[in-house]
TrEMBL record:
<protein>
    <submittedName>
        <fullName>Glycosyltransferase family 4 protein</fullName>
    </submittedName>
</protein>
<dbReference type="InterPro" id="IPR001296">
    <property type="entry name" value="Glyco_trans_1"/>
</dbReference>
<dbReference type="Pfam" id="PF00534">
    <property type="entry name" value="Glycos_transf_1"/>
</dbReference>
<dbReference type="InterPro" id="IPR028098">
    <property type="entry name" value="Glyco_trans_4-like_N"/>
</dbReference>
<keyword id="KW-0808">Transferase</keyword>
<dbReference type="Pfam" id="PF13439">
    <property type="entry name" value="Glyco_transf_4"/>
</dbReference>
<dbReference type="GO" id="GO:0016757">
    <property type="term" value="F:glycosyltransferase activity"/>
</dbReference>
<feature type="domain" description="Glycosyltransferase subfamily 4-like N-terminal">
    <location>
        <begin position="19"/>
        <end position="152"/>
    </location>
</feature>
<feature type="domain" description="Glycosyl transferase family 1">
    <location>
        <begin position="160"/>
        <end position="299"/>
    </location>
</feature>
């Protein structure tokens, strides 16, 4: 198949990834190219194309990207952005458009989905059952395809350091970094923080004043560096306080063997069971402290097995590949 993938334009698609959506985009194009498909990535300048992927840097925004897509002679377009324009104008494409919904319904995108859903060229994917329920009033039917990770990129660590926790994500209010700091401090755990700072004022107010020799911020790390940090911890913390669409950090931590304690935000309840993690109500730091101690006693090999069984990258790639084929076979 001749596949075009439209990336989100907020950040370049390159390591260290700005977020889960950029990582998902890179994994998708790399996986499709490895299966012999012709793949073109339309992305912000400064992006890196995996081996076998043609990179098309876009400087004129989504309108310019859509012009390139209409003229590209593709079999299928995968819209991996959060912008409303590719959804609203999917009917003008010369081929089917698959849109993965990585975010809860916000006004512009849900309005575009209400209009675009009537085009037989537009097909929606949601990344969790939670997201499917949120989007159903606007998209109608959608296909659930869980995000996946490459287990080889997240090596299993049979033992983490006792009373050491790890937290990873973009540092912004919706990710709840301050709750990880508060819980680790109350529980007497050391804490390693990693991820890009998306809200400098939030970092200065809620994170920076609490950094010391026990609570450390490591910056934005490569996948290899992050896996090493995760594998070295006795427990991973997940503190999102918004409607988390998926929570890719959970399978990543589990793959390293690190059990997870966190808030039951959005799709998190789909990703964990009591054998590999503990979830509590959002913003309940006291309950999170109890959950940390309980999770740290769980079997690390069970965490690895759960991640491999349910969130393998090849399962995700196969899901999209099969969806593309079904769509094209119906034409």
């Amino acid at each position: 198949m001749k596949i075009a993938v439209l990336a989100p334009f907020a950040f370049p698609v390159r390591e260290p990834y700005a977020g889960g959506q950029e990582r998902h985009t890179a994994q998708l194009v790399r996986g499709m190219a490895a299966r012999g498909h012709s793949v073109t990535l339309l992305a912000r300048p400064g992006s890196d194309a995996p081996e076998g992927v043609r990179l098309l840097p876009i400087t004129g925004g989504y309108a310019a990207a859509l012009r390139q897509l209409r003229a590209g002679g593709f079999d299928i377009v995968h819209n991996n952005s959060l912008d409303y324009l590719p959804v609203l104008t999917a009917w003008r494409m010369n081929c089917p458009v698959v849109t993965t919904l990585h975010t809860p319904p916000y006004r512009a995108l849900r309005l575009a989905a209400r209009v675009g859903r009537w085009s037989d060229r537009l097909h929606f994917v949601t990344v969790s059952a939670f997201m499917q329920r949120l989007w159903a009033p606007y998209t109608g039917r959608s296909t659930i395809i869980y995000n996946g990770i490459d287990p080889q990129a997240w090596p299993f660590s049979p033992q983490g350091e006792p009373r050491r926790a790890v937290w990873s994500g973009r540092i912004s209010p919706e990710k709840g970094t301050e709750y990880a700091i508060a819980a680790a401090s109350q529980a007497g755990y050391a804490l390693d923080l990693a991820g890009p700072i998306h809200d400098q004022a939030y970092f200065a107010r809620e994170v920076s004043p609490y950094l010391n020799d026990r609570i450390r911020y490591h910056g934005s790390l490569s996948g290899t560096e992050l896996a090493r940090l995760m594998g070295g911890a006795g427990v991973g913390l997940f503190t999102s306080v918004w409607d988390e669409p998926f929570g890719l950090v959970i399978p990543e931590m589990l793959a390293c063997g690190t059990p997870v304690a966190g808030f039951g935000s959005g799709a998190a309840t789909e990703l964990l069971y009591e054998g590999v993690g503990q979830l509590v109500e959002k913003r309940d730091v006291t309950a999170l402290v109890t959950a940390m101690n309980a999770a740290a006693r769980l079997q690390r090999r069970h965490c690895r097995a759960h991640s491999e069984r349910n969130f393998h990258l090849e399962t995700m790639i196969s899901g999209y590949e099969e969806l593309y084929r079904r769509i094209l076979n119906r034409r």
